[in-house]
Amino acid sequence: MPWELTSDRPIYIQLVEHIKFDIMSGRYKPGGKIEPVRELAIKASVNPNTMQKAMTVLEQSGLIYSNRTSGRFITDDQELIDSLKTSVAEAYCRDFIAKIRQLGYSNDEIKDNLNNYLE
Amino acid sequence: MAPLLECRTLTKKYGNTLALNNVSFTLEKGRIVGLLGPNASGKTTLIKLINGLLTPTSGEVLINGMRPGIESKLSVAYLPDTMFLNDWMNVKQLINYYSDFYSNFDVDKAYDMLKRLNLDEKMRVKAMSKGTKEKVQLILTMSRDADLYCLDEPIGGVDPASRDYILSTILNNYNENGSILISTHLISDVEQILDDVLMIRFGCLYIHKTVDEIREEKHMSVDELFREVFRC
Predict the structure, then answer these.
(1) Residue B139 in contact with residue B170, Cβ under 8 Å?
(2) CATH number, domain at B65?
(3) Which range marks the domain in which residue B145 is found?
(4) For chain B, what is the domain count?
(5) Mind telling me how many Å the CA of A72 is from chain B's nearest CA?
(6) Enclosing domain of residue A108
(7) Residue A1 pLDDT > 90, yes or no?
(8) Residues in chain B with pLDDT values less than 70
(9) One domain for residues A61 and A97
(10) What is the pairing mode between strands B32-36 and B179-183?
(11) What whole-number distance in Å separates Cα of residue B70 and Cα of residue B30?
(12) Does residue A4 form part of some domain?
């Protein structure tokens, strides 16, 4: 299945986000191996050079490291993964709050709604 | 080392009609490049010049540093935009024909692709639909182990499911030494697999950038940019 990508932003950035999400959600286990670039590119239906660029960005962020002989691995630094999770969760919340405020909801109403929804 | 493909101030006139006007660019190895432009913008002319089917009015084309000729024809696999196969032949005969002609033709690869696309090797070209003919032509072209693949409108008549398979075939066949130049109007279908975009407008090279450069600078996809630039 090709990965879902939107048309308005650079492809490599979306690939980075996709892989980050898979790391945070635990689809890729900390310390686990990640598929070769070519394989990932074919899976995502994107150009291998673009996938390579995404890998470089992920390596720079420390989430992925490469071992010259045996390929690329996910970091086993759980703190790094957790802090990424926190910042992504914050961004989701900010986005949600901004949108629901535009609909005219007060803070109390937002809390009530959220509580109802969570139950 | 000479680049895989270099066009220097390439110009082609048909009588008084200027088809290509002073086009210069180089193409490195290991790239998948989209050749985009509206009808009559000069895409096919450019591809024919690269393959030595036309001679430039001025300027030159160099493939691995050499002008198109017998040697370049071994390193360039060309898929024309028209039907070129003998229609009395069946697929098996075509594969034999190609492997006789081209020393770099991989018969196993061709049969493998045929199987994946559920094509019957005994089928004659005469009995094929437009889409099936296109698939067979593409298989024959992509089964060659070439440096440069020039695909002129390869997927126009092909259904979306087969199109996906063909695009993944292109990705699978891509290697660090080969490059693919693909002319198409189906931009949104191919955009994700492209490195670079060559956009031609009235015979002139209008844009030569990577897909992500375009998206970063213009905040739109290549498909959207095309529609904006060439709005009628």
Answers:
(1) no
(2) 3.40.50.300
(3) 5-229
(4) 1
(5) 20
(6) 79-118
(7) no
(8) none
(9) no
(10) parallel
(11) 23
(12) no
Tens digit of pLDDT for each residue in B60-97? 999 999 999 988 999 999 999 888 899 999 999 999 99
Residues A15 and A68 in one domain: yes
Which residue in chain B has the smallest CA separation from A4? B192
Q: Is B170 helix (H, G, I), strand (E, B) or coil?
A: helix
pLDDT at position B162 is 83
CATH number of the domain enclosing A50:
1.10.10.10
Count of A-B CB contacts under 8 Å:
54
Residues 6+ apart with CB under 8 A from B174: A48, B30, B32, B180
Cα dihedral sign for B217, B221, B222, B225?
Answer: negative
Q: The tokens of B50 are what?
A: 């690269």
| pLDDT at residue A54, as a whole number | 96
ipTM of the complex: 0.79
Give DSSP secondary structure letters for chain A. -PPP--SSS-HHHHHHHHHHHHHHTTSSPTT-EE--HHHHHHHHTS-HHHHHHHHHHHHHTTSEEEETTTEEEE---HHHHHHHHHHHHHHHHHHHHHHHHHTT--HHHHHHHHHHHH-
Cα A37 to Cα A51: distance, rounded to the nearest angstrom: 6
Do residues A67 and A93 both lie within one domain?
no
Rounded to 5 degrees, φ, ψ at A57 are -65, -40
- Using only the alpha carbons of chain B, give its radius of gyration: 17
Residues A35 and A51 in one domain: yes
Q: Which of B35, B39, B38, B15 is nearest to B23 (CA)?
A: B35
**A62, A84: one domain:** no
Q: For A5, name the nearest residue in chain B, comparing CA atoms only.
A: B192
Residues A72 and A102 in one domain: no
Distance in angstroms (rounded) separating the CA atoms of residues B94 and B125: 9
Does position A75 have pLDDT exceeding 70, yes or no?
yes
> Nearest-CA distance from A14 to chain B in Å?
11
Question: Are A21 and A72 in a shared domain?
Answer: yes
Helices A37-44, A48-60: inter-axial angle, 10-degree rounding:
120
CB-nearest partner of B171 from A7, A8, A42: A42
Query: What is the tally of structural domains in chain A?
Result: 2
| Tokens 């686990």, residue located | A32
